[in-house]
Amino acid sequence: MQTATAVRSSSKNKRSIKYVYFFGGGRAEGDAKMKNLLGGKGSNLAEMTNMGIPVPPGFTINTEACTHFYKNKKQYPAGLLDEVEKNLKKLETVMGKKFGDVQSPLLVSVRSGARVSMPGMMDTVLNLGLNDNTVKGLIMRSGSERFAYDAYRRFCQMFGDVVLGVEHEDFEHLLAKKKKQRKIKLDTELSAKDLKELVAEYKALIRKKTRAPFPEDPRKQLRMSIDAVFSSWNNKRAITYRNLNGIPHEWGTAVNVQAMVFGNLGEDSGTGVAFTRDPATGANKFYGEYLINAQGEDVVAGTRTPHPIADLRKDMPVVYAELVKIYKKLEAHYRDMQDLEFTIEDKKLYLLQTRTGKRTAQAAVKIAVDMEREGLINKREAVLRVEPEQLDQLLHPMLDPKVKVSPIAKGLPASPGAAVGKVVFTADKAEHMAEKNEKVVLVRLETSPEDIGGMAASQGILTARGGMTSHAAVVGRGMGKCCVVGCGDITVHSKDGYFVTKGKKVKEGDYISLNGNTGEVMLGELDLIEPKLTSDFRTLMVWADSFRKLGVWTNADTPHDSKVARDFGAEGIGLCRTEHMFFGKDRLPLVREMILAEDTKTRIKALSRLLPLQRKDFKGIFRVMCGLPVTIRLLDPPLHEFLPHTDKEIAEMARQMKVSKQKIADLMQNLHEINPMLGHRGCRLGITYPEIYRMQVRAIFEAACELTKSGYDVIPEVMIPLVGHVNELIFTKRHALEVATEVIKKYKVKLKYNIGTMIEIPRAAITADEIAKEADFFSFGTNDLTQMGFGFSRDDVGKFLPSYIEDGILEKDPFASIDIKGIGELVKIAVEKGRGAKPSLKIGICGEHGGDPASVEFCYKIGLNYVSCSPYRIPIARLAAAHAALKEG
Amino acid sequence: MQTATAVRSSSKNKRSIKYVYFFGGGRAEGDAKMKNLLGGKGSNLAEMTNMGIPVPPGFTINTEACTHFYKNKKQYPAGLLDEVEKNLKKLETVMGKKFGDVQSPLLVSVRSGARVSMPGMMDTVLNLGLNDNTVKGLIMRSGSERFAYDAYRRFCQMFGDVVLGVEHEDFEHLLAKKKKQRKIKLDTELSAKDLKELVAEYKALIRKKTRAPFPEDPRKQLRMSIDAVFSSWNNKRAITYRNLNGIPHEWGTAVNVQAMVFGNLGEDSGTGVAFTRDPATGANKFYGEYLINAQGEDVVAGTRTPHPIADLRKDMPVVYAELVKIYKKLEAHYRDMQDLEFTIEDKKLYLLQTRTGKRTAQAAVKIAVDMEREGLINKREAVLRVEPEQLDQLLHPMLDPKVKVSPIAKGLPASPGAAVGKVVFTADKAEHMAEKNEKVVLVRLETSPEDIGGMAASQGILTARGGMTSHAAVVGRGMGKCCVVGCGDITVHSKDGYFVTKGKKVKEGDYISLNGNTGEVMLGELDLIEPKLTSDFRTLMVWADSFRKLGVWTNADTPHDSKVARDFGAEGIGLCRTEHMFFGKDRLPLVREMILAEDTKTRIKALSRLLPLQRKDFKGIFRVMCGLPVTIRLLDPPLHEFLPHTDKEIAEMARQMKVSKQKIADLMQNLHEINPMLGHRGCRLGITYPEIYRMQVRAIFEAACELTKSGYDVIPEVMIPLVGHVNELIFTKRHALEVATEVIKKYKVKLKYNIGTMIEIPRAAITADEIAKEADFFSFGTNDLTQMGFGFSRDDVGKFLPSYIEDGILEKDPFASIDIKGIGELVKIAVEKGRGAKPSLKIGICGEHGGDPASVEFCYKIGLNYVSCSPYRIPIARLAAAHAALKEG
pLDDT per residue over B724-754, tens digit each? Predict the structure, then answer.
């Protein structure tokens, strides 16, 4: 925008705003830096022109014209058409042809080109300028009537479809009819006469459908096509794409009008696409394919098999040598791997496009590290070249991307990777089959903490309900296990051993495959590609860490997870959830005994039997994390989560606990909650039953003291969940301090520790100044903060969130990426108030957002000390934190 | 505090801070304005002394000494004891007696006295100064050994109990033993010898229990009593009382040391209490009672029946005349009804206390209006004299306060008033019995919208679950019907037709009585006092309105409620909940048909049959509210609320709808939500099913247009619930505008209307600037805002809120009175951001807080335009709004 603004502000005459930029004849008015104004395509065409690379000349109508168009009821800015006309004249001069001329007609393409590539989302018109007159000139110039009418036919179809809105199928129908009449199969078998007839038939169709004749005037065609490209910015497809990719709707698109060159003028012509390095592996070799006597769309359509680019060396040695020179020049110039489109017209090479090439994660890492070593880019750039989110591909198994899949259902992609296995419906069954080395996928309505064993035993998890932070999603990500949740397409009939999706019945034991990156569910046993971490990856992470300022901690509940996280580079545990430990088979009966207790004494007795088990849990984790802080959250879920669900389980519990079934039923009625997420949990439990938190704190400090005596460096941090009022923290902290002091005194050791709180209740954020005075640290629980801040139950949001995203009401799932304007504002308020009251306050985030790159950047910007995420997200968070620091300057 | 601070800041010597204030001999160092420093009692004793009213002389240790005591580990401020000694000397001089003197001993009382009265909460010691020596002087002076030993015995017991912590019962036990020995029944029958023996026995008891002798030194007694009074400020009773009454814990108490006078010196002595007007009716006549030859505690104890004050005219005409002169003087001086305590010692009258008298609501209103008419106070003062909350007594039936009750259970007092009726467990049964003119009380685990008919038919409602904004509570208040919720004491066995409380079984058909002001549940049929609104009440409300600046609107869903509200003075409807209309017997099948619809077309068809019914609903309300704005909230609850619950109901619905039971079961599974409060409701429904909101908007505008045509002045305001993101408002508003425009055009009328939104999601408050741009008005839904801001489910909060209040973690139930620091801050942020973006924004509140006086004051302070509350709360809100405006100045 800078350029345009400069032009505008340097002139007092409104008419002097420049909307159109010419390129051609070795010089261009724009360059690569003007991407925001000219779009990616336009600015690169200008840049290439200036570099002396052969590009068909043309001009770009900038994005400001488009935004003006939308701001002014689809009116063009004043003077735009004059500028177009002027540039058209220039183009005629450079090309030595005339628009609409019978002798030597100038044909152009009209293409969209936004700031960032939106492949296939917007519209394109080729061969514009043809009509019943100019086609004669094309015949003359090409010497081929067939070629000319083929071009004319294609133009009519494209213009009719894209600009005039006649159904593509109606044209295809006429084409098919013609081939049937001629008893031929391929388009190429159609004669010039057939094609000429088709042009007439197409025009008749257009007249019928649009109640207007086909516009023969090339200038009218051009004007209408510009209109259509502008309008295509806001077609439904494009809006959805932008919503999915976080592209602002107000950017608008540029329009590129460019002289046509033809790759289908005979055996000396051709077209192709190429990458300057291998986009799959990153190997430093020229990679691509081409077709002789073909147009771009033929390469894409796949009706003919293109040749590998190396063959061009034999077919057209001179052209190939020039292409090699150009690709090297472009890569050196843009200092990144390029994706090229080229056309050869009568042995003359034209570059139609260059852009930064898309690549796999593996290729991205290799190219970045290689280019640094080649001296092409520095370490800083290398780190910025890999998108953090991409790393997921390196950390999890993937479905072979070459295999086409037919999903039978689609849910939310809650945990990345892929899984293949036999369908099972219960956690027990999953464990049972896994013991026999069978691969299974656990399919549930939703999961609960008692399913953890079965989830661990499964290859992947599929649930019908729940959102991006539902139990299955959180646990799945924690285990690095592929998980698809909220899959409303399926109806689960666990008892009868099947699920139904779109009328299809899938039974227990049937194979299914899950894609955790897309949320797709496929029938059968698809091939998996196992992940591997290369030394290039490790190099890149070392570089990233050298730039990063934000700490990266982990959410881990077991020694195993802690080990995985530490190996991935975790610098501490930001969230150790103690409730998961309560579900162990040796603990659940004790936990239930504690819940059944009718007085404090009995409760304390049950808790005292849990104490040694909890102590053992913590020792295991402290050992693995030796030297690093371990933040342990005291019990958080409501007690009813630990009770049985089915009649059978109730009977079993009654037998085990030696109480009547009625007593358990009464207890369940008493503990039942209408909105458990807003119920008796978190520190509310620690306040009504201080003995529970006291036991946990005792276990933490006994474990820490014992290990400290054995020479371990233990740094425990006690975290109180769900604080909304400072008094809740004061109350629970008092108990924790009492126990901690007593234990440390008993063991006679020196131990540094902190007592802090989650900030996950909106009220806590609003009153963070009061709370900070009592806390050693804050840790944002952005899952709950999002739930309560939005009023979205993470378990139920699946019922409306998809349509919210589709309708553009929300840009992104706020459970996946922090909602910066709302929830982020609450976080910011809390940071400001908290640090205002206590400047030394340590602040982190342990919600699932801790592993989302956009959220990591936000956390860095507002000055958090660390983010904490699930183990498999740590490399992503490290890289995202490096990006955030580098982007800042 | 001002006085003390002034003294302190005017002196550089720390020792010169004054802690003790003398009164007596016709002059006092303090006065009535020094209430904060000297407490209510102390400042009034000083004031009366200065007025020349006979008050036993003494001195007051101020509240700053008490706060110093608590801030400094229970140490007295330096110099305090010197000041006490100095004042004691002064007292001796004035009284002509000496503390600890055998000849003419000075006896004193030591009493607490905080800024506000906390009756019976703190401790008192009388007759202090007695020991085995001084008792002899008392015998001499009184001429009665019996009197002297009785005083001594009482002192030992009081001091032993209050100061030394020996159980009251242990003393009573010795007293009873003595009477048994002597074979007598009354204390008065004990001889001097008996009493002397008792003194010795009491002292032995004290020595045994405290392992220390009884302190014979009067100065030690005094010092220990001051300690005890200071300490009593923080006894459990007092803390609870302060929590319940919103009295800050940091205020502290003053201590009054005052010369004893005795009403039990013979037939020329006596004691009594009196009110300057009738505290029950407010009638302007001297009211009170007295006893001859008695001490204050005898009047209170009720062992002897006191005489009406008028009889004193005969008994002691001179004293009576003086008393009448004094009471008139005091009332004229304090310009309010006074509550007096007096003692007559040997025909000499002493006033022991004067304070503003507590009174019933009826009396408060009458006294305020009368005093204005008498010219004693102005209208402004009259309005301030009635506490808004008190008005509840005038608006609802009450249990006779004279009848002692024995509650069998206690819940939350959710809706004031009282109810008496037979227990029923289902809404149907309630309706059925009400039709037969039987009075019933509906007892449920919790209520849901389909119970509304039964609730309306009942005298009162009792639920085992739920908080102050649960369904039963909200509906109960709306109907002005007594309601007790969250009564955890009871276990409901609806099917078997009984509930159990503390082991007691109460069956269907048994009578119970509810007190909605206390939450108490009593067995049996208690007497009710019906409310009546006097012309004084109406006068006071007119005065209140003349000061009030805040609008008072109502929450009403029916023409009947609207009428009640308008009669109570509502200036508009701030919340008309449309879902209640959906539960009508003629509508529910249509609503269910709409929910069952599998496509939009079928849904629209069902909705179109609902349309005329909704239109009729709105017409009814618009008619009643003619000329006033009516804010209609579009559908808010999740659709599953409209589905059946029991198998029987499911079967019935299946039959009615002609679908399989399985289909209904599937639908229920699909619609089930784990946390419905955070689920698919509010505008989320209006976004996934725009046709629902469109039907409702159509009904609103068709109703409005039809009535406008008939000459009614209709002002509809459409309110979108549960908006958290501006895009939600944009989406739903677009649909609403479309329909409104179309309908208005069709009817060809002029109609002013507004489209606004609830602010009830924390994120909405945080992003109120964005939302304001799209809204004509904001209405704070502080119920939901409190739920989400605190993370408290209103339905489940009963499990821990009581202990939160008890432990002092929360001062008040945030659903009953707005939490100013947290939720209030969110409201403030929203008001500032909203008005910042749109200065003309109309802002109200329609949560249940709209009828809570403290919340009304808050709403006024932050600049809201109106509060909206249930009809029976309107007078309270009007008066509270007047108070808020008057308090501001």
Answer: 999 999 999 999 999 999 999 999 999 999 9
Answer whether B734 touches A (CB < 8 Å): no
Q: How far apart are CA B622 and CA B860, in angstroms?
A: 27
Q: What pLDDT is stored for residue A324 in this prediction?
A: 97
Residue in chain A lying closest to B726 (CA): A809
Element (H, E) at B514: strand B511-515
Token pair 């208040």 is at which residue? B477
Say which range, A499-508, A580-589, A778-787, B35-44, has the weakest mean pLDDT: A580-589
Interval B596-618: pLDDT, tens: 998 999 999 999 999 999 999 99
List the single range of A24-38, A235-249, B766-780 with lowest mean pLDDT.
A235-249
Q: B806 to each of A687, A764, B795, B802, B814, how far by Cα in Å?
A: 11, 21, 19, 6, 14
Dist CA A506 CA A74 (whole Å): 51
- The predicted pLDDT at position A474 comes to 80
Instruction: List CB contacts of B328: < 8 A, sequence separation 6 or more.
Output: B276
Q: Which of B678, B766, B826 sits opposite A675 (nearest CB)?
A: B678
* A470: three-class secondary structure by DSSP: coil
* B846 is known as an active-site residue: yes
Sign of CA dihedral B631, B635, B638, B641: positive
Average pLDDT over chain A reads 92
User: What was the pLDDT predicted at A662?
Assistant: 87
For chain B positions 641-700, those within 8 Å of chain A (CB to CB) are 666, 673-680, 684, 687-688
Task: Name the token pair of B192.
Answer: 């001097």
Q: Are B270 and B343 in contact (CB under 8 A)?
A: yes
Q: Which of A623-627, B15-19, B33-37, B215-219 has the lowest mean pLDDT?
A: B15-19
What integer pLDDT is reported at residue A448 of this predicted model? 83
CB contact under 8 A, B761 and A809: no
Residue A493 designated active-site = no
For the whole prediction, is pTM greater than 0.90?
Answer: no
Q: What is the ipTM of this complex?
A: 0.81
Mutate which of B725, B773, B801, B821 to test chain A, going by most A C-beta atoms within 10 A? B725
Percent of chain B with pLDDT over 70: 97
The average pLDDT across A501-522 equals 92
Better pLDDT: A232 or B630? B630
Q: Are A614 and A560 in contact (CB under 8 A)?
A: no
| CA-based nearest residue to B850, from B838, B860, B839 | B860
Q: Please name the amino acid found at residue B825.
A: E
B388 touching A, CB under 8 A?
Answer: no
Name the 3-class secondary structure at B419. strand
Strand pairing class (A866-869; A842-845): parallel
Q: What angle do CA B423, B424, B429 make, to 5 degrees?
A: 150
Q: Which of A595, A636, A675, A726 to mutate to test the interface with B (most CBs of B within 10 A)?
A: A675
Instruction: Find which of B243, B774, B788 to mutate to test the A interface (most A CBs within 10 Å of its CB).
Output: B788
CB B765, CB B830: distance < 8 Å: yes
Indicate yes or no: CB of A826 within 8 angstroms of CB of B666: no
Q: How far is CA A476 from CA A440, A566, B104, B531, in A?
A: 14, 18, 88, 62
Count other Cβ atoms within 10 Å, centred on residue B64. Answer: 21
> To 5 degrees, how large is the angle CA B658–CA B664–CA B669?
170
Asked if the Cβ–Cβ distance from B793 to A674 is below 8 Å, we say yes
Measured CA to CA, the distance from residue A746 to residue B263 in angstroms comes to 62
Using alpha carbons, select from A715, A720, A756, A709 the residue that is nearest to residue A634. Answer: A720
Q: Do B687 and A809 touch (CB under 8 A)?
A: yes
DSSP per position, A139-176: HHHHS-HHHHHHHHHHHHHHIIIIIT---HHHHHHHHH
What tokens does B723 get?
A: 């908006």
